[in-house]
Recover the amino acids of this structure.
């Protein structure tokens, strides 16, 4: 067995004396037991893509290389591998894990990170907001649980992280995700009534991520949590203001510090009296009730009495627990006692209880009885005031779209594609951005694009525009215009291949395998192997009945027939057919 390296011994020595470990001790945990797990790498965990036709085949493949179901995720939708995260043994296990992820059949995701969506009270057909969405693991988990009718508005403020979010949506072939770019604290208005559900998995100090982010031991001090607190509250409060009566919002962090967790939840309950915490439970997972009292620490990890905490960097009285606030005379005692009663409904996940990272989750409900009409809080006060004043709102014209705007698809393009591929596009909402045509659920058009949207001054932006939402992508890219030919995209074939009835040629398994093994015949030669006299130039589809079902692949018809599917998908198809990997055959 490999002994600890010098770097690991140095990390353990530092961790034992760190302020983070001091915090864990102050919170009543067995420090030695916690450290033992908090210093180990995480096991490899992942979700199975629910909407893929070969889902059961994927489950069989991962079980064959040692996967065990995550017990608190239903119906074999998530698995744990018998090796550490990113450390699959060389050979089949390593290759399969990479290929299954790259082709969208699985999504690598820390088990603890699956909790917010697993616990969120939501159903299909909902309009849901993920406020801090990148890199997209929770967004795609939401998208699959709402599939195919519901819509996830995936918001990410940081331009550099948007690409990861968009890439994950495409990798899984999900059409029900709409990507926006806003600072979560000032997320734009949308047409009433608002969002049916909200996920606020906010930026945090990551003190629960010691098993994958080793720098946390050196980087974290108590003032970092206090510094993050204000932003966490503001993001969550904005999400709450956009939540419809009866809707649910999950707040979560990968932090163990109560200042980023229970203190934020308590402050939201103070600021948003129309919210309440709802109890949560989950069989198969050890979880702990939220705290009603917690310490404040100085930079050396020593406890500071709430009566004398003003000297701490970034200190705010809202960082104090409700018991300390009552003792200090802060806030209304009745409200603080009501918060004490609710905080145990939050859930804490510790590293050493379930072989996971650390995590925190709370679920709010917008009390229906707190609303006189079925619209989110953001739409109420201004509208009620203006209505009482006899205000007639001005209908404002949205800005003209730019070349980068997402707009309703051109009708001529839609008709051309319906004729070309024999696919009925009418059931979908259809969007264009540049030379791409995307498909999404009708809900995108019905709830976000068509209706007018109130301004913050009581006027309205006219409908038939996403404005003031800053929409970067809507739906799934299904077709791309290239070389004057509308090509079907590979990610769209995962979702819509069976609906294409034209521009498709059925070939037998032998021809399919030859093409997959690198055969790029001249068109004249290809005609000798298929029952067709002539094929159109440009993008085309080939379909074949294979042992597991029907597969449709993209090709380009020029002087030769050439495949237009990436190497990863080619290797997956090869593996299913019992063929060598492409690099082995070459």
């Amino acid at each position: 067995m490999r002994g600890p390296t010098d770097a690991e011994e140095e990390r353990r020595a530092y961790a034992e004396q760190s302020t983070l470990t001091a915090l864990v001790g102050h919170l009543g945990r067995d420090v030695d037991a916690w450290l033992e797990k908090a210093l180990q790498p995480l096991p490899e965990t992942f979700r199975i893509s629910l909407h893929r036709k070969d889902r059961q085949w994927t489950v069989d493949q991962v079980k064959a290389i040692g996967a065990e179901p995550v017990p608190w995720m239903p119906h074999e939708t998530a698995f744990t591998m018998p090796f550490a995260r990113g450390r699959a043994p060389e050979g089949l296990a390593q290759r399969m894990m990479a290929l299954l992820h790259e082709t969208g059949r699985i999504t690598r995701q820390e088990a603890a990170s699956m909790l917010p969506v697993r616990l969120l009270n939501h159903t299909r057909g909902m309009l849901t907001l993920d406020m801090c969405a990148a890199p997209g693991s929770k967004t795609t988990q939401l998208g699959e649980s709402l599939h195919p009718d519901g819509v996830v508005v995936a918001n990410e403020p940081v331009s550099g992280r948007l690409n990861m979010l968009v890439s994950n949506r495409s990798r899984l072939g999900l059409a029900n995700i709409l990507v926006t770019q806003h600072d979560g604290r000032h997320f734009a208005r949308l047409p009433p009534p608002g969002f049916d559900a909200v996920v606020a998995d906010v930026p945090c100090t990551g003190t629960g991520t010691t098993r994958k982010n080793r720098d946390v031991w050196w980087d974290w001090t108590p003032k970092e949590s206090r510094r993050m607190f204000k932003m966490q509250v503001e993001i969550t409060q904005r999400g709450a203001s956009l939540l419809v009566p009866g809707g649910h919002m999950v707040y979560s962090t990968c932090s163990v510090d109560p200042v980023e967790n229970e203190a934020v939840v308590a402050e939201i309950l103070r600021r948003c009296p129309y919210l309440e915490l709802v109890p949560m439970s989950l069989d198969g997972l050890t979880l702990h009730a939220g705290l009603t009292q917690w310490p404040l620490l100085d930079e050396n990890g020593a406890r500071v009495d709430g009566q004398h905490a003003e000297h701490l960097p970034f200190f705010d009285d809202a960082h104090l627990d409700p018991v300390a606030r009552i003792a200090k005379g802060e806030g209304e005692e009745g409200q603080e006692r009501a918060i004490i009663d609710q905080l145990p409904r939050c859930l804490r996940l510790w590293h050493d209880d379930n072989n996971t990272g650390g995590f925190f989750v709370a679920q709010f409900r917008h009390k229906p009885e707190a609303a006189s009409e079925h619209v989110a809080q953001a739409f109420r006060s201004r509208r009620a005031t203006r209505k009482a004043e006899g205000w007639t709102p001005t209908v404002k014209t949205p800005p003209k779209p730019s070349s980068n705007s997402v707009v309703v698809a051109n009708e001529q393009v839609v008709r051309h594609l319906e004729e070309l591929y024999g696919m009925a596009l009418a059931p979908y909402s259809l969007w264009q951005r540049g030379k791409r045509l995307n498909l999404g659920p009708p809900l995108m058009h019905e709830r976000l694009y068509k209706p007018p949207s109130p301004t913050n001054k009581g006027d309205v932006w006219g409908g038939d525009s996403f404005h003031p939402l800053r929409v970067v992508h809507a739906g799934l890219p299904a077709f791309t215009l290239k070389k004057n030919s509308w090509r079907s995209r590979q990610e769209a074939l995962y979702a819509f291949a069976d609906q294409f009835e034209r521009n498709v040629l059925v070939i037998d398994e032998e021809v399919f395998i030859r093409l997959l093994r690198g055969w790029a015949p001249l068109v004249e030669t290809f005609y000798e192997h298929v029952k067709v006299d002539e094929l159109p130039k440009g993008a085309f589809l080939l379909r074949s009945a294979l042992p597991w079902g029907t597969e449709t692949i993209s090709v380009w018809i020029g002087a030769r027939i050439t495949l237009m599917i990436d190497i990863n998908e080619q290797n997956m198809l090869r593996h299913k057919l019992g063929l060598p990997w492409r690099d082995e055959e070459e």
Observations:
- The chain has a mean pLDDT of 93.
- The CA atoms of residues 200 and 251 lie 5 Å apart.
- The longest strand covers residues 243-253.
- The chain has four domains: 43-109, 113-387, 407-482, 503-585.
